[in-house]
Design brief:
The complex is a heterodimer of chains A (504) and B (308).
Chain A lengths: L1 H29 L2 E6 L14 H10 L4 E3 L5 E3 L2 E6 L4 E6 L13 H12 L8 H4 L2 E8 L2 E6 L6 H5 L7 H4 L4 H6 L7 E7 L3 E6 L12 E6 L3 H10 L4 E2 L4 H10 L3 E15 L9 H10 L2 H8 L5 E2 L22 H9 L9 E5 L5 H13 L4 E5 L2 H8 L9 E6 L7 H8 L11 H11 L4 H17 L3 E13 L3 E2 L14 E2 L2
Parallel strand pairs in A: 1-10, 1-11, 14-15, 14-16
Antiparallel strand pairs in A: 2-3, 4-5, 5-7, 6-7, 8-9, 9-10, 11-17, 12-16, 12-17, 13-17, 18-19
Chain B lengths: L1 H28 L4 H4 L6 H11 L5 H13 L13 H36 L4 H15 L2 H15 L11 H31 L2 H8 L4 H29 L3 H6 L5 H10 L3 H29 L1 H8 L1
Helix pairs in contact in B: 1-13, 5-8, 5-10, 5-13, 6-8, 7-8, 8-10, 10-13, 12-13, 13-14
The chains are: A alpha+beta (504), B mainly alpha (308).
Chain lengths: 504, 308
Amino acid sequence: MNTTTRAARFALPFLLSLGAALSAHSTASAKELLTIDLVNEPSSLDPHQQWNPDSYYVYRNIFDNMVTRNDAGEIIPQIATTWERTSDTETVFAIRDDVTFHDGTPLTPEDVVFSVERITDPDFASPQLGQFNKIIKAEVTGEHQVTLTTDGAYPALLAQLVKLSIVPKHVAETMTSAEFNEAPIGSGPYVFADWQRGVSVKVTKNPAYWGDTGPFDSVVFRGVPDAATRVANLQAGTSDLVVTLNTDLAQQVENSGRGKVLTVNTERVAYFAMNGALSPLDQPDLRKAIGHAIDREAIVDGLLGGYPQIVDQLLSPAHFGWTDGIEGYSYEPEKARELIAGLDTTPDMELGLATSPVFDQRVVQAIQQMLTDVGLRVGIQTSDMATWLKDQQTSPDQAPMLTFSRWSCACQDPDGIMYPLLHSSSNWSRASDPEMDALLDEARSELDEANRAALYARINRMALENAYILPLYQAAIIYGAADELVWQPTSNESLFLNRMSWSE
Amino acid sequence: MPVFLLQRFGQALVAIFGVMTLVFFIQRLTGDPTYLLVPETATQADIEAMRRSLGLDQPLLVQYANYLWDMLRMDFGRSYVQNIAVVEIIASRLPYTVQLASGALLVAFVIGLPLGLAMAIWRKHPLTNALMGFVLGAQSMPTFWSGILMIMIFGVWLGWLPPSGSGSFAHLIMPSIALGLLSMATYARIARSAVIDELSKDYVRSARARGVGTGRLVTRHLIRNSLIPVISISALEISQLLAGAVIVETVFAWPGLGQLTVQSVQSRDFVVVQGIVLLGAFVTISVNLLADILYSVVDPRIRKGSRA
């Protein structure tokens, strides 16, 4: 016994220090490599080209944007440090002078101007053209200064510039977009390292970054199309963060004890559109009846795991202009039946509800059932996404009667959602109300924030009164993450690696 | 033989032209990819601009003529979505598909053939019923379910194999089994019926009468004679496997052609779909040609017949 004690006394410090060394080693090396499972590989890493989450999840880490949003959703400086509106159409931006691209060249105001000109060049045919084509001129007006001129007053300018990635002029102007896509050079916290086609994209930490880089030496983004497989990867420890889970899989992650669920309400608003141009939906009372017939609480709590938030405006709290106190249609099937009974033209025809497999079919079927319960005949018309999109973007007399959809302008600005869905000049809109059109036009160029918010509140009340469209809920996005990952997902559905950290 | 081959080549060319034309027109009936390439907020002008940049604004027949001309010059175009040459995209995916197809074929062959043989020779044995049940089960289990089940057991609980992805031999095991089990059942059933067929023939009875043992009977006579239907099935199976195992590749995140096909069809990436379909047609036609040649090697009667 004595010898054992002595041996223990002798060995203990060694063991302890060994243990300490080992654990210190493991914390330091545990997250040299972070693995993130996306649905698909990126389509393009040229930030002025493809516009889908799997692409921007990756390239927003390789490139800096003109401005960005913090976790609270406020617009904060990134490449532009300050900005000042010098007239209704001109805004002057001060540009950081301590930023270098990954090839070592300093980022200059010329690069900013080039980036604006590149994405707004009609010949370049960027899918994001519509988000930036209000900018008609970009010029260098000082040593570290750029002035952007817009076509008329444009209050959503900053909200759009959150998505303007700055590309190096000396590289991008000598290459086609296809070439730039294969070797993208930005100024962001991570450097493009390798793209295994169809498999993964690897980025490595940019040691020369001007801001915070986050703790990971390198990060791999993989394409894993099947959501159940993404969850299995997370539980097996072969990935640390997985995107786009449904509520069943989120439940599975929560019950398994391995990994955790991270969720945030995005700026994506689910809505129910009714074609008011066609009989019988041209009767406001029928549209109101539909509003009273849809039980949004049942949808959110029963089908969507309680994650989304019900909204009564065609906005989400993540948008500018969200106004408290706007009340929509409560679930009152009796009232719906009364309204339908009092109609001039009884809706005895079948109303088509257009949908595509992209949308949650459980919600679509639930709405069909709810409308059937109050005595309407609703038939679900499923088409593929391309056809669905084409059918939606047409004149009201050809558009589907009923549509369930979700909308995000990726700008968190009401103009990006309310104008396309409510203004009669938009292909998406089913409403045609000159008074509302005038208000939408006014709000679009109102530079005073308080006035602008008041205008949108008025438009929202007007849309509700006439039941032009029914806002349903603010959609949630669900991620699965390793227990050690510390990260706050944001409403704009970005994965900024330098805002993630790792705790053992 | 040369006449027979020339005929076959001629047929193959006509078939490929037919496939080229069909895939071109059918795809264009299914919708306009432009809408999927622009964000929801795009204006009609943005949509028009995108359509112009893809050349989709031209009349259909002009597009078709351009397409045929490109094909003649062996220019397969660039992906609408990724803006990369289709040849490059397919070339990066093809090795994975070949690996998976070989793995699956190996699983199917190594398990399926002996199984079929055993079920035929001992067809009265009670164990055979259990084997038949196994074969039936393997064939009826949908891969999206058996795949996930395997991932949960071997990838998550036991941790023996990587749950998904590619890059090492270990990654190949589960997808090969998931995919191979389907073909395995086909092989087992075909081999079984072929052997049963042979067993009832006179030469088997004579051999038995001469005192030839079961082992020798199987290895020397039965296998060789039962191989013909197995080869014709292989031609079908191989072209099916190479065309891509859509579900298995999706479940296991295996970056082969099947996954690419689904993604490209969903995004209406016409150019990529055309490339894949043409490759599939080419493989199917070549494999069938090869099978025809193989028949004549295995069975001299076909060789002699074609000479006459």
